[in-house]
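Work Package 4 report. The design task specified in the project plan requires that, given a folded chain encoded as structure tokens, an amino acid be chosen for each position. We show below one input record used in the internal validation round.
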């Protein structure tokens, strides 16, 4: 058993020695392949792989639940900050950003631009909603990366403002239109009631002659103990008169509400016209000057996007190292094939 074990160890030692000798004999081949692979990898990394530069936006979002306007309160349909940040890659924003950057739409599509935008991890800490988000954009040169990040943020802010105002316009236009119909019904009903009360008032005596009334019943009732006034105010007349006053006050109130809401609808119609003009021309300045910006104090950048100082990828050094390792492996494999395969044949 001991002799067999010694023989096996000698055979293994000889085999390893043969392998190392074979590699040493083919060292020129191995080194050549390794250097060629390293050189090719470096050339490809430098000249054929487009450089990528990243510019980061740190966006703070604290949107309210309700949008306050002169027309009333509008409850915003989006309820969480992460829903707001995810809108930054919506089609409308990307289309506007492509246009703002002057990209060729055949080369830079919505899908390709969306792939160049990365939203950082979204999570809740101790049940608290996150309100700070990192958005990274990628471009082929440092200045383009900074400009793309800023254009994306500007169009994002514009999109939130426009969609919020459009939603509010829909809400209040529907509300006032429905309210006016209801007010008109109330006005018609009150005016009819006023007419009836005025007819009733005309038929009702303003006073009652108590003396005549007592003369009619003095044969039945002893009126000696009563002081009888000749004319007193008719309480029915007073009641109808008060009802008429209430009718007129209600009519004035309803007509005032109708007037105010018609003025609001006229203003809303004007806003609709400006919104339509915005969709046709893309000019946000005129629309912005005539509305409240919901994003102004609720979405902001602590600092503007900056020009990146170095490219993110590719890493030439890393690629050359990987190419060298791969070349070494290929060289060793080629050495074994040349040393054993061709000799045996």
């Amino acid at each position: 058993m001991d002799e067999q074990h010694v023989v096996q160890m000698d055979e293994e030692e000889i085999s390893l020695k043969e392998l190392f000798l074979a590699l040493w004999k083919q060292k020129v081949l191995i080194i050549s392949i390794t250097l060629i692979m390293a050189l090719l990898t470096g050339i490809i990394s430098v000249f054929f792989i487009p450089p990528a530069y990243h510019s980061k936006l740190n966006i703070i979002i604290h949107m309210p639940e309700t949008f306050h306007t002169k027309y009333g309160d509008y409850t915003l349909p989006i309820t969480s900050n992460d829903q707001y940040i995810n809108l930054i890659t919506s089609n409308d924003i990307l289309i506007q950003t492509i246009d703002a950057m002057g990209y060729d739409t055949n080369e830079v599509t919505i899908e390709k631009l969306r792939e160049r935008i990365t939203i950082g991890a979204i999570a809740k800490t101790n049940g608290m909603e996150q309100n700070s988000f990192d958005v990274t954009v990628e471009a082929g040169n440092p200045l383009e990366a900074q400009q793309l990040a800023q254009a994306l943020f500007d169009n994002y802010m514009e999109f939130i403002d426009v969609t919020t105002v459009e939603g509010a316009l829909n809400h209040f236009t529907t509300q006032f239109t429905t309210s006016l119909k209801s007010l008109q019904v109330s006005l018609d009903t009150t005016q009819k009631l006023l007419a009836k009360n005025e007819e009733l008032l005309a038929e009702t005596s303003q006073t009652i002659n108590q003396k005549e009334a007592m003369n009619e019943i003095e044969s039945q009732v002893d009126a000696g103990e009563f002081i009888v006034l000749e004319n007193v105010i008719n309480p029915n007349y007073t009641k109808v008169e008060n009802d008429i006053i209430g009718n007129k006050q209600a009519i004035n109130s309803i007509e005032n509400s109708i007037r105010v809401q018609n003025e609001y609808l006229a203003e809303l119609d004007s806003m609709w016209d400006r919104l339509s003009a915005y969709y046709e021309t893309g000019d946000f300045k005129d629309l912005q000057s005539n509305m409240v910006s919901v994003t102004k104090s609720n979405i902001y950048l602590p600092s503007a996007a900056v020009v990146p100082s170095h490219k993110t990828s590719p890493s030439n050094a890393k690629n050359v190292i990987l190419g060298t390792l791969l070349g070494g492996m290929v060289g060793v494999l080629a050495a074994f094939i040349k040393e054993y395969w061709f000799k045996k044949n």
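The chain is about 65% helix and 10% strand. Validation will be extended to a larger panel in the next phase.
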